[in-house]
Amino acid sequence: MPRLGSPALEFAMHILLVEDDDELAARVERGLQQAGFVVERAANGHDGLELALQPQMDMIVLDLGLPGKTGLEVLREIRARGIVTPVLVLTARGTWADKVSGLNEGADDYLTKPFHMPELIARLNALRRRSTGHASNLVTFEDIALNVSTGEVTRDGAPLDLTALELRMLKYFMQRVRHVISQGDLVEHLYSVDGMRESNTIEVYISRLRRKIGAEKIKTIRGLGYRFG
Ligand code: CA
Description:
Layout: H1 7-10, E1 14-18, H2 22-34, E2 38-42, H3 45-52, E3 59-63, H4 71-80, E4 87-91, H5 96-104, E5 109-112, H6 117-132, E6 138-141, E7 144-147, E8 153-155, E9 158-159, H7 164-174, E10 180-181, H8 183-190, H9 199-213, E11 218-221, E12 225-228
Parallel strand pairs: 1-2, 1-3, 3-4, 4-5
Antiparallel strand pairs: 6-7, 7-8, 8-9, 10-12, 11-12
Helix pairs in contact: 3-4, 7-9
């Protein structure tokens, strides 16, 4: 997976799709990918539960009729473990009782099959808006606010235009406020592509980022690296 120059990937929402109908799952996966989501698929309840426990999952689309473990069982276990990832359940037509059970077990929304992709995407976007309003997605430091889900950065409420690399750098710093970060750490984190590991360019990027977020926020610690805040 490319790790450089693509805020769309770095900040894309990860959707776990748990659906045992291969054809439907493939179609939904394609539609979600086209809408800019990163999709992980599971075809049974056991795999679905395992993947649902992964921290990178932002939302879960969960079929209720699954082999291995039913969708309701998966949902119950997810919530029992304190995982609050938004879940949209897929139910078969005419199974209104499933909908009710799903909502009772902690589903955030449901969709009845068959459905149109635009409706699923609209509902997921609505779920995302609701969940990204949560403080955990917003990292702030002084006048800077970074939404780690969407990659949006504001300074004093006004949007900041950062390159993908500046965004990665800022995110790295903001999650390590007052830590000393060596140039080596930054190089390691920012460039996963061989041939781009030129540590002298780090200083160039640091100075560009300083201009955008306020120079005083990133201090150079001579001989050791940098400190944010
Ligand atoms: Ca099914």
